[in-house]
Amino acid sequence: MTPRDDKQTLTQGVSGPSWYAQLRPEGKRAYIAAFGGWVADAFDFMVFSFVLATLLELWHLDRGQAGLLGTVTLLCSSLGGWIAGVLADRYGRVKVLQGTILWFSFSTLAIGFAQNFEQVFVLRALQGLGFGGEWAVGAVLVGEIVAPAHRGKAVGLVQSGWAIGWGCAAIFYSVAFSLLPEALAWRSLFWISILPAFLVLYIRRYVPEPEVFIQAHAVGKQDAKRPSLWAIFSPPLLRRTVLASLLCTGIQGGYYAMFTWLPTVLKLERHLSVLNTGAYLLVIIVGSFCGYLVGAFLADYLGRRLNFMLFALLSLVSVCLYLNLPLSNSQMLWLGFPLGFASCGIFSGVGAYLTELYPSELRATGQSFTYNFGRGIGALFPALVGVLSHVVGMSAGIAIFSGTAYAVVFLTVLLLPETKGARL
Questions:
Q1: Which of 393, 10, 385 is nearest to 214 (CA)?
Q2: Of the CATH numbers 1.20.1250.20, 3.30.1380.10, 3.60.15.10, 1.10.1660.10, which one belongs to the domain with range 26-216+229-413?
Q3: Is the pLDDT of residue 148 over 70?
Q4: Closest Cα partner for 204 from 40, 86, 20, 29?
Q5: Which of 40, 78, 317, 380 could form a disulfide linkage to 372, CB 3.0–4.6 angstroms apart?
Q6: Using one digit for the tens of pLDDT, what is the confidence trace for 72-85?
Q7: How many Cβ atoms sit within 10 Å of the Cβ of residue 113?
Q8: Which residue has the higher pLDDT, 275 or 210?
């Protein structure tokens, strides 16, 4: 990368008190857009986990069916994410980011009008197509505008928007189910999910494409040859594509196995009220927000690999303690903080790491494939937990799949390269 390229990544050096202050105005707007997209993503996706117990009762679903509703979104998001990544490498990060936000916002809105399991199943599948694309495109967008020394914390702090969206979902859940009849309350949560669509108006007006992408795209036009969709599986990149996919499978499989079912565990096994369930989840969400922040800074301070290993170990211990110890309700409340801290903090390093593993012309394709492959395989975990829960119980089923997932993360990281400080 030339000095001119450095200037046009929308940062102005790496020294100074604040990496955010060093961003040029267009870089700050891109950061805000990506952060807002993550908040919207989390709200629209996590709302379903709050209404799952209600649907089990109102529609007389079994746990296997409920698990499928969680799994189908994640499976389709793996496909949608890969497609969005390919499109982002060809047509631009900002354009595709707008499309994915509109897609999942309107799909989520439609779920609020569904009348049966089959309709929700189809709409959750459509929701996943947009949900998967937004993460990868937003991570690449931020990764390409921030200087190497700050990339881990910048992308990781954007990831913290997930905790904010999740927290908003918990608050709206508590309010809606306290004020409205249950049959209407769950629908209202999906109806208000249309609000993130207005973020697109901001993106269209204020957010430009990263200069790194513009230059790479211009070179591609001059060569009159587009990189192959399958280039990430070519011999130079195959090993890191496979290992990065396993890394993302473990991180996401552990998370989805735990948090898709957690509100149901609190309500049906712990017999907590709506307000108490919301309080427990808010402690976990506050922990997750803190985990995102700490993980973001540790990714730059410790390096990508050591950061993953530390949080994988913390996640494994937290999950096993939370689900297997004979805890009182009060003890479970406070243990929720380290559980959220560890299982969400591990995500902070993912976006920057995947951005650094691939060259510009394949960056969105490689990042979206590996992350969404992990999401697709991890998507099986909620359904498998639902099936296994009939044999060993819900808590034990979650602990088995989450524990295995974090062990995979720890082992995979040992085989991957360190990319801290890599220049794009």
A1: 10
A2: 1.20.1250.20
A3: yes
A4: 29
A5: 78
A6: 887 888 788 888 88
A7: 11
A8: 210
